[in-house]
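Sample pair:
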Amino acid sequence: MATTPIEVYCKPGKTLTVDICARGSNTKLVTARSLTEATNRPGWYTCNVTEALSGYHTLHLYEGTRPAGGWDIYLVDDTTVDTAYEVGSNSAQVVIALQLLGLDSPLNASQTRSALGMSSANLDTQLGNIPTVAEMNARTLTSATYATQAKQNTAQADLDIITGSDGVTLATTQGNYAVSTFDASTDTVDVGKINGSEKAARVQARLADAAIELTVDDATFTPTTTTFETDGTITADSTLVGMAGTWYNSSGDPANDVTYFITASEGTTTNSNDKLKITVETMPAAPADGDVFVVLGAKVK
């Protein structure tokens, strides 16, 4: 049997007594016990229960003979303070519900873990795994082994090499990236569609296959505004007569966007310099050595 302190709240400044009955019973287990108001907590009244009571009970408070209210309380036969709650209050309902579930009010550590679905967890261990300030500081850029400033600088340098200093140009190689620039002289690009059209891609390819690129050669003949020798290998004369050609060169003259019709072509067999000689409509300027004349849609007869 323990002396169990109980406390209950009522209006301050009253002289109160309490009867205690088992919840739902009319039998008084404690009768007219005096309540003492706490000195520093106005309205809180206490007394000791020495009758070894446990479980749900009801407190009936009296001011003299006049009832002052009813309170629910769950008593435990020990020396901890049990608090009463006004009958029907939310607090009383919560306490009752917890007790019906076999839980303490408030929940103890084990019950708290169970309520959170962590009945097997060790909260102390888990909380202990949270890094301390010192551990967090040890993981900063100045000392961490996985994210040092030096390593970040190296990563940035690698990215610069991959993308190029202007952020656009691809580097030739960078470790496992194996990135290379496009070499127009050796690399190929297969295009299945142009502007969404497969036909456009096919026609463009056929036109390119049919075209003949002739490079101006001024070693044995000085080009004029109508005639020039090329590196072409066509042997017969007049093969290209009636064809049209345009210039692809760096000088800009003759104008690249103008097409010139071929009026005569002298094959390598006839030409004394063993060159393919081309005569076209008069151009605004003579081509230079190395300029490229593209014959469009030409076919060797």
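Helices lie at 90-100, 109-115, 123-128, 133-138, 149-163, 198-210.
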